[in-house]
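Ligand: heme C. Inputs:
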Amino acid sequence: MKVAKSPDGGVYPVGSVIQLVPTEVMVKQPKGFNEITHDWEFFELNVSKDGTSINKRGFAEVVNRFGGNCFGCHLKAETKWDFVCETSHGCDPIPLTEPMLKALQHTDPRCPGSDTVSAEDALSLKQLRELLQPKAPTDHKSG
Ligand code: HEC
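Predicted complex:
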C-alpha cells in the first residue's frame, strides 16, 4: 500500500482494510462516515474454524476484549499517519511482542494448518496468556 510505505504518511484510501491480530481490524469507510475517526471503522471479530463473525463494530466507542478503546490508543498516532500506529507512529506500545503477534497470526483458526502449533508459537502463546492473566475480567461474586 502506497501510504503505508511512504515516509511522509498520508491518508489511507477508502476501502483499506488493515489488521494486525486476527480479531482486530480497521476499515476505511467513505468520507463523511465519521469525522472524529477520519472514517476509520473499528471491528472486533470472533474467529473460529467456521469463519468470522463481528462481535463489535463502530467508531470512537469500540472497546476490545481487554477493555481497551481502539480509538483511544490509535488517536495518539501522529496526524500524518492517519491513526495507524505501527511501532513508531506515536501510539503507546501494546504489550505484545513480535513473536506473540506472529503466533496469533499463525494460529488464526480460520487458516488451514492452524491447529498444528510450533513449539516456538506455543511458548509465545503461553507467555501471552500469562501476560493477559492479571487484566482478565474476574467474576466478582457480590453478596
Ligand atoms: C492499548 C492500545 C491499543 C488498543 C486498545 C487497540 N490498539 Fe490497535 N494497535 C495499537 C498499537 C500500538 C499498534 C501497533 C502494534 C505493532 O505494530 O506492534 C496497533 C495496531 C493495530 C492495527 C494494525 C495497523 C496499525 O495501526 O499499526 C490494527 C488494524 C488495529 N491495531 C486495530 C485495532 C482495533 C480494531 C482495536 C479495538 C478493537 C484496537 N486496535 C485496539 C494500539 C492499540
